[in-house]
């Protein structure tokens, strides 16, 4: 039976992806910060679908987190065949609002851990008959977003990293897919400290449910797509990001986040 390792698996899109895999009888290795939520999620999925679900509470913002996860996989002798780099968060507001430590911790979670964990697990993935890497990027990857400047930049990095790695691995057994969700009904806004009424209203109008995003993400991964955006509104936004001048897009984004 294949095994999937999922970061940020205690809630939101990550938890929903875990359930999608459980439905397909794929065993789970769940990673997030909250031990209580992970334990609850693992127990629920194991009882409901009869899969093996193990969990590890780890703070991905801390140096050495990727090595901790990799060591845990080796200790449990779990041959990972699916890696889902889902964990990530944003910080809204002007760049100077936050300390450099707050910015670098977010960059650690959104980029560095993804690269480190992917690098560490590639030999294991190469050893499987078929393996997948699913990176959860964002619709924000396609343009600069004043008010979410660092977050958007990290997601742009993740999208570019995914496509480049996919090409390098094109003749191997490993498929790499980047999925770029738009507004989703998760805890993102609270974690990002979004306070602007315009941003909250825009999110509420176009929010997708995590279960639907997860279903589309897993479908894209198994279809071996290079890149996928979820939902019609998000696809339309990506089209306009390609079509319109960058200055127009940046002004519109700045207006939403009241910058």
Question: What does the overall shape look like?
Answer: globular
Q: Strand share of the residues?
A: 5-15%
Query: What class would the helix/strand composition place it in?
Result: alpha/beta
Major sheet strand order: 3-2-1-4-5-6-7
Order of helical and strand elements: EHEHEHEHEHEHHHEHH
Uncertain residue ranges? none
Q: State the end-to-end CA separation.
A: 50 Å
Number of helices: 10
- Total beta strand runs: 7
What do you see in this structure?
This protein is of the alpha/beta class and 259 residues long. The chain contains ten helices and seven strands. A seven-stranded parallel beta sheet has the order 3-2-1-4-5-6-7, sandwiched between helices. α4 packs parallel to α5. The longest helix is centred in the middle third of the chain and has 27 residues. The termini are far apart.
Key phrases:
259 residues; alpha/beta; 7-stranded parallel β-sheet; 10 helices; 7 strands; 52% helix
Could you outline the blueprint of secondary structure elements for this entry?
Layout (H helix, E strand, L loop, with lengths): L2 E5 L4 H12 L3 E6 L2 H15 L3 E5 L7 H11 L6 E4 L14 H27 L4 E6 L12 H20 L5 E7 L7 H4 L5 H10 L3 H13 L4 E3 L2 H12 L2 H11 L3
Parallel strand pairs: 1-2, 1-4, 2-3, 4-5, 5-6, 6-7
Helix pairs in contact: 1-2, 1-8, 3-4, 4-5
Concise structural overview:
With 259 residues, this protein is of the alpha/beta class.
């Amino acid at each position: 039976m294949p095994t999937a390792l999922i970061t940020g698996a205690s809630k939101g899109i990550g938890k929903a992806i875990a359930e999608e895999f459980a439905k397909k009888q794929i065993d789970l290795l769940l990673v997030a910060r909250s031990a209580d939520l992970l334990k609850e999620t693992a127990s629920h999925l194991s009882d409901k679908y009869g899969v093996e679900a193990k969990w590890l509470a780890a703070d991905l913002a801390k140096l050495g987190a990727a090595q901790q996860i990799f060591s845990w996989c080796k200790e449990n002798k779990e041959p990972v065949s699916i890696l889902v780099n889902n964990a990530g968060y944003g910080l809204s507001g002007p760049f100077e609002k936050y300390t450099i430590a707050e910015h670098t911790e977010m960059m650690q979670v959104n980029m560095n851990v993804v690269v480190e964990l992917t690098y560490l697990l590639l030999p294991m993935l190469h050893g499987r008959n078929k393996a997948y890497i699913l990176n959860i990027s964002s619709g924000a990857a396609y343009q600069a977003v004043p008010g979410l400047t660092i977050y958007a930049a990290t997601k742009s990095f993740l999208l570019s990293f995914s496509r480049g790695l996919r090409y390098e691995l094109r003749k191997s057994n490993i498929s790499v897919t980047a999925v770029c969700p738009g507004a989703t009904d998760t805890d993102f806004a609270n974690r990002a400290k979004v306070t602007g009424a315009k941003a909250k209203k825009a999110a509420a109008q176009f929010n997708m449910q995590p279960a639907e995003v997860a279903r589309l993400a897993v479908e894209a991964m198994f279809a071996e797509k290079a890149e996928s955006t979820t939902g019609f509104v998000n696809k339309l936004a990506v089209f306009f990001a390609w079509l319109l001048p960058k200055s127009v897009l940046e002004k519109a984004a700045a207006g939403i986040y009241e910058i």
